[in-house]
Amino acid sequence: MTASKGRAKGTNRLPLLAQAGPVSLWMILFVTIPMLFIIFISFMTRGTFGGVEYTPSLESYQTMMEVTYFHIIVKSLGVAAETTIACLIVGYPFAYYIARKPPATASRLITLLMIPFWTNSLMRLNAWMLIFQTNGPVNNFMLNTHMIDKPITFIFTDGLVLLGLITNYLPFAVLPMYSSIEKLQKPILEASADLGAKPSVTLLKVTLPLTFPGIFSAIILTFIPALGTYVITDMLGGGKVLYIGNIIKNQFGTIRNWPLGAAMSVLLLAVTALMIFLYSRFAKVEDMEVV
Amino acid sequence: MEKAIVALKGVNKWYGNNHVVKDLDLEVAEGEFLTLLGPSGCGKTTTLRMIAGFEDASSGRIEVQGEGVDEKEPYQRDVNTVFQSYSLFPHLNVFDNIAYGPRIKKRPKEEIEQDVEEMLRLVQMSGYEKRKPDALSGGQKQRIAIARALINKPRVLLLDEPLGALDLKLRKQMQIELKRLQKKLGITFIYVTHDQEEAMSMSDRIAVMKDGIILQIDKPTEIYNRPNCRFVADFIGESNIMGGTVTKVEGDLLTVATPDGEVQTKGVGFAVGEEIDISVRTEYLECSSEPAGSFSLKATIRDFTNMGTVIKTSALTASGKELRISAFEQDENLHEGQDVYLFWKPEKSVPIHREQKEAKA
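^ Those are the sequences you sent over. The predicted structure of the assembly is below.
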């Protein structure tokens, strides 16, 4: 009797485990464990010859608060914020324009937006370098039209890094905003005009608030990767301007200070978690179904 | 007619090669409840949207209060619209939805608060200020949409099938409320619907539209009793329509030869030999087992249908035409398959010239 009871219980449990099992297992193996390991390492000590000594310490976090690193963190946050704001300012009108086109035209425009992403990102970055180098087309054009007397150095400047970041992350900003603007129904905008609102007022009081979830998604999808990037900053910044991404890469690579690299990663993780928390708090609650 | 508050003069609307509104002339009097009635695709909604300013007329002139509005954007026009889809702002609560218009006009805060409360009382929705639109039922949403439009004190309210999404019972109730509201406020209503019953019960005048033209514009009773063409007779209420040739004209009494025999009707402006249609409302068609009246048509009873308030009797004439009769009570003496005589009082039928207006459409 007890056996059959146990079996009944077992059969009851198995399907549930079978459903959630593989996914949970995958998540635990490839996400949770590595993440916990990173957090764990960040609280350990740096080994003399580059390894990790398993004696707990806050050494890495203290290093992170030192002026040099703290400055880099603030600067990285600043560049990521600039990238995000620029992507929103350029991306929103673009997304709006696409969303108001007939579906066939819209999907063609989106394809155009995505085409650069079928090419290798290193090639795209090299292309920017070629365009902006000392004897590249931009400098040549400005020299020939006498806008300048001698070539401007664009390469390895913060400005070019920012341009690279913006062009790289723009599609990630446009797509979520497009999908939320597209859902916005025309009668809602007509109702606003009918009640006396000029187009600018409708934009502020109806369109922007109703597409806020898309804007917030765009912020997350540009800010977080822009904060962690190192390829773009390395290539266009020439490696001489350091950002969080470069530091993490170097700590795990050449410098071999894993605990510090891990601590920096934990910081990125914390920023990401905070933003996702804010998103779930403010963007999701609003029911976007138009009534 | 009193002073027209809205006037359309020779208005045309083309969508590419599609001529949806054709040379439309329309005058709406101050305080009037006018309904644009017609099947889908007849141009009624387009006409309304042109008055609101959401569509530009391809040609012609639209006037509101005697002033051309063709150059004015929707937000500059002194009319407000109640949409079929309600179109409440989902991110704003009921209070903010209603206060949207007055706030844009930068009216004082206390005044807005008072007005919103008054509007909520008017549409019987007091106490719902803090609700979000998605927490309201369809009927409640429509009340808020009406309040949101009325708070702007428009001279003209445009309503685009506002009750279309509601169930029958609620729709009937809202019809009565809307009509009372319109009378109380004295605002001109231009109302678009495809529901002829709705049009009949609410309107001061009905404009029946088809294929971009107005076929007939008149008081509901006139439209019902004196349809000027076959389409109107058929679209409004339930009619039996028979074709025939006028054989005798005595004053306004016409004798008409139909395939099933001679019948009589009353009307002026018809000549002997003219091919006409005769429209007889189902409630005016009578049925008897013996010949009666000044004429009668032989027919066989096909079946009876109980519609609740009325019983419908269907009868077939010798030529195979189906005629329908509606009556409050079923004649006990009649049964299916029985041969009967059909007749009507000549003044209760309408002679109609053949397809002249519709030919234009």
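Chain B touches chain A through 29 residues (CB under 8 Å). The first strand of chain B starts at residue 4 and ends at 15.

Shout if you want it in another format.
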